[in-house]
């Protein structure tokens, strides 16, 4: 997952609105969002190589989302553990968010760089494994890409601004999907420096990415209403072509298994 823009705690209709793109190599095997056979209370996509996920929600309302941190160091080193298990681990756990994140800190260096958001539509917490600090997310619009929460990368700032403008009007899922397909790239002076060539930094600077071997594989729109009604819609892509969409609706059940 390489871009998560979300509105939390300050919308008249929704506790949480998430607009997210997962960017990945086209040849990495992936299953679209579904209720997992082995843990049927988890609704998430699945990386079929590491068997974890990048974004998911449970029937009881537990939510977790992940992005990678991109630096020279991450490209030069290999790591023992897959980052996708951080999301599935929280979704399958009964630990409180702060407790779960605290337990990760001693071994966080065994993972390549990550940003992790965990909690539910009422309380979200953030940490990354560079600072190893647990932060409670404040109300408002936030953005997360391949650096820390609310870093002022052009795609993050643009996504936050577009999401805030959209949610000021009547909510429209299709409009959010259009937002996630935005291809405006940063100017040369705005590009971050993460160890990639300037040409590749430029190609990755838009919200929606399409390169020959790597790009936006899916877009996800997740909403949780003040009545705890959940809608999760995922649209999949191959390069610039939409290849399918799935939609799930349910009401959070605090007494459900898991």
Largest sheet: 7 strands, antiparallel
What are the low-pLDDT stretches, counting only 5+ consecutive residues below 50?
none
Secondary-structure element order, N to C: EEEEEEHHHEEEEHHHEEE
If you compute it from the alpha carbons, what radius of gyration comes out, rounded to the nearest whole angstrom? 17 Å
Strand order of the largest sheet: 3-4-5-6-7-8-9
Helicity level, as a percent range? 10-25%
How many helices does DSSP assign?
Answer: 6
Our measurement of the CA-to-CA distance between the termini, rounded to an integer number of angstroms, reads 24 Å
Second CATH tier, the architecture: 4-Layer Sandwich
Q: Tell how many strands the DSSP assignment holds.
A: 13
The name of the CATH superfamily reads Penicillin V Acylase, Chain A
Mean pLDDT: 94
Strand content: 35-45%
Principal-axes geometry comes out as globular
SS class: alpha+beta
What number of structural domains do the residues give?
1
What is the CATH topology assignment?
Penicillin V Acylase, Chain A
Can you tell me the CATH class? Alpha Beta
């Amino acid at each position: 997952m390489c871009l998560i823009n979300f509105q939390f705690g300050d919308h008249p209709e929704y506790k949480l609105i998430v607009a997210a793109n997962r960017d990945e190599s086209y040849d990495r095997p992936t299953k679209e969002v579904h209720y997992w056979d082995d843990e049927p209370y988890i609704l998430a996509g699945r990386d079929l190589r590491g068997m974890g996920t990048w974004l998911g929600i449970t029937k009881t309302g537990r939510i977790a989302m992940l992005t990678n941190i991109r630096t020279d160091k991450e490209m030069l080193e290999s790591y023992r553990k897959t980052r996708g298990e951080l999301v599935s681990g929280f979704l399958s756990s009964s630990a409180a968010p702060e407790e779960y994140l605290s337990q990760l800190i001693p071994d966080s260096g065994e993972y390549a760089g990550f940003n992790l958001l965990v909690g539910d539509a009422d309380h979200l917490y953030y940490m990354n494994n560079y600072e190893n600090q647990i932060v409670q997310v404040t109300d408002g619009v936030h953005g997360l890409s391949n650096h820390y929460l609310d870093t002022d990368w052009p795609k993050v700032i643009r996504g936050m601004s577009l999401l805030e403008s959209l949610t000021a009007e009547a909510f429209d899922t299709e409009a959010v999907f259009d937002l996630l397909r935005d291809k405006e790239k940063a100017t040369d002076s705005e590009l971050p420096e993460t160890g990639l060539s300037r040409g590749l930094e430029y190609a990755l600077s838009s919200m929606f990415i399409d390169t020959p071997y790597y790009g936006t594989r899916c877009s996800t729109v997740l909403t949780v209403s003040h009545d705890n009604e959940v809608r999760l819609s995922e649209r999949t892509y191959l390069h610039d072509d939409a290849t399918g969409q799935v939609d799930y609706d349910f009401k959070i059940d605090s007494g459900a298994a898991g």
